[in-house]
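Ops channel
N.P.: pipeline sanity check, posting one input/output pair.
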């Protein structure tokens, strides 16, 4: 038999290789909470408890994966976003707190007392953390989401199912699709193209290739590059296509929300203005960095 305290110490030693002490303690708690349903108090009060061979192998295997630098969210296949648990794997970005701020901004702009049926589109949905959260908190809205990655959409659909929300998912490349393809999401019948979107949101790839070397190994070695990086010579490539195509499918007065690279906020503001958007506003995240932008398009 194995003592819980021995496995705790083993975990601390394993995590010290790739985590600072405080972060290692948080990861340690996440592992025992997820794998054995033990909270922080249990790790102290039950330190002398015996673990079965199966429990020991399970936890030891998790620590072994973490020693490689693999993110704990991918090892446990779970990440928390807007107080909800999402399934994640190597095919999707791990949801970040900064993106929660983007969701909260949308909810602030469109309060719950407005019961109108809003058409909402998420471009590059990944794990679907944005549309699932919106759907849970604004259940009257019509939610659409697209991604260029089939495996990512499988994760997205899994999360929509686990949270019991109805989201219309589509496999679509925003760089290659046209207005007709986007409108077909709302208007399956070719004879009807009157419906448009009220809100479009995206957290597109925005990290320059040259910035890869400065990123943590847990990001650059384990998270999907297709969702992260853009060429140095054209860092606005996704923003340009999203801004252009959104202007074609947004209702007059419709809103565009984007997460952004702080180094590109001025360029992105100018880009949106050049496409005819109004009321362009940049917001900072809780670290004080330019992190999100919104704009309104009027026909």
């Amino acid at each position: 038999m194995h003592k819980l305290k021995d496995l705790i110490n083993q975990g601390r030693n394993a995590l010290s290789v790739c985590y600072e002490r405080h972060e290692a303690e948080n990861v340690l708690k996440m592992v025992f909470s997820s794998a054995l349903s033990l909270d922080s108090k249990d790790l102290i009060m039950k330190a002398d408890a015996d673990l079965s061979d199966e429990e020991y192998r399970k936890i030891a295997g998790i620590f072994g994966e973490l020693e490689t630098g693999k993110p704990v969210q991918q090892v446990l296949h779970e990440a928390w976003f807007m107080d909800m648990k999402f399934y994640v794997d190597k095919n999707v970005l791990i949801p970040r707190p900064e993106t929660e701020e983007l969701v909260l901004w949308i909810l602030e702009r469109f309060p719950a007392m407005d019961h109108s049926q809003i058409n909402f589109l998420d471009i590059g949905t990944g794990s679907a953390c944005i549309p699932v959260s919106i759907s849970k908190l604004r259940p009257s809205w019509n939610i659409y989401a697209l991604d260029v990655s089939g495996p990512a959409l499988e994760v997205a659909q899994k999360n929509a199912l686990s949270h019991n929300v109805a989201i219309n998912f589509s496999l679509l490349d925003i760089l290659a699709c046209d207005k007709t393809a986007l409108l077909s999401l709302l208007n399956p019948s070719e004879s009807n193209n009157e419906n448009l979107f009220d809100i479009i949101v995206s957290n597109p790839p925005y990290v320059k290739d040259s910035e890869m070397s400065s990123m943590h190994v847990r990001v650059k070695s384990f998270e999907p590059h297709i969702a992260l990086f853009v060429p140095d010579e054209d860092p606005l490539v996704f923003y340009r296509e999203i801004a252009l195509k959104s202007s074609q499918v947004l209702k007059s007065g419709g809103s565009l929300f984007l997460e952004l690279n702080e180094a590109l906020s001025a360029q992105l503001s100018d880009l949106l203005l050049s496409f005819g958007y109004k009321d362009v506003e940049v917001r900072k995240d809780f670290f004080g960095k330019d992190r999100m932008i919104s704009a309104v398009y009027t026909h």
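N.P.: looks fine end to end. The longest helix spans residues 21-36.
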